[in-house]
TrEMBL record:
<dbReference type="InterPro" id="IPR018247">
    <property type="entry name" value="EF_Hand_1_Ca_BS"/>
</dbReference>
<dbReference type="InterPro" id="IPR003299">
    <property type="entry name" value="Calflagin-bd"/>
</dbReference>
<protein>
    <recommendedName>
        <fullName>EF-hand domain-containing protein</fullName>
    </recommendedName>
</protein>
<dbReference type="Pfam" id="PF13499">
    <property type="entry name" value="EF-hand_7"/>
</dbReference>
<dbReference type="InterPro" id="IPR011992">
    <property type="entry name" value="EF-hand-dom_pair"/>
</dbReference>
<keyword id="KW-0106">Calcium</keyword>
<dbReference type="InterPro" id="IPR002048">
    <property type="entry name" value="EF_hand_dom"/>
</dbReference>
<keyword id="KW-0479">Metal-binding</keyword>
<feature type="domain" description="EF-hand">
    <location>
        <begin position="43"/>
        <end position="78"/>
    </location>
</feature>
<dbReference type="GO" id="GO:0005509">
    <property type="term" value="F:calcium ion binding"/>
</dbReference>
<feature type="domain" description="EF-hand">
    <location>
        <begin position="6"/>
        <end position="41"/>
    </location>
</feature>
<keyword id="KW-0677">Repeat</keyword>
């Protein structure tokens, strides 16, 4: 259970850092500016516009936390760059 809370916390930290408008949504411009940071966390982004379309599953023109979290979790992104820092599961 502790691992899930830690993962959720990390995803929240990531999202908050790249949501520069603070509106709890990512637009294409925010995502493009965040690409280097996302790559630092382990994402492979060749074309930010294409990846943004992939994230924006409902086609709204913005990415919600849930959409981002599903994408980031599937790619095992790590905010501190060290997967060994995660708490051990009990």
């Amino acid at each position: 259970m502790l691992c899930y809370l830690y993962d959720y916390f990390e995803l929240t930290v990531m999202f908050d850092e790249i949501d520069t408008s603070g509106n709890m949504l990512l637009d294409a411009k925010e995502f493009e500016k965040a690409a280097p940071k996302l790559e630092q966390w382990g994402a492979k982004i060749e074309d930010p516009a294409e990846v943004f379309k992939e994230l924006d599953r409902n086609g709204s023109g913005s990415v919600t936390f849930d959409e981002f979290a599903a994408w980031a979790s599937a790619r095992k992104l790590d905010v501190d760059g060290d997967p060994d820092n995660a708490p051990e599961s009990a």
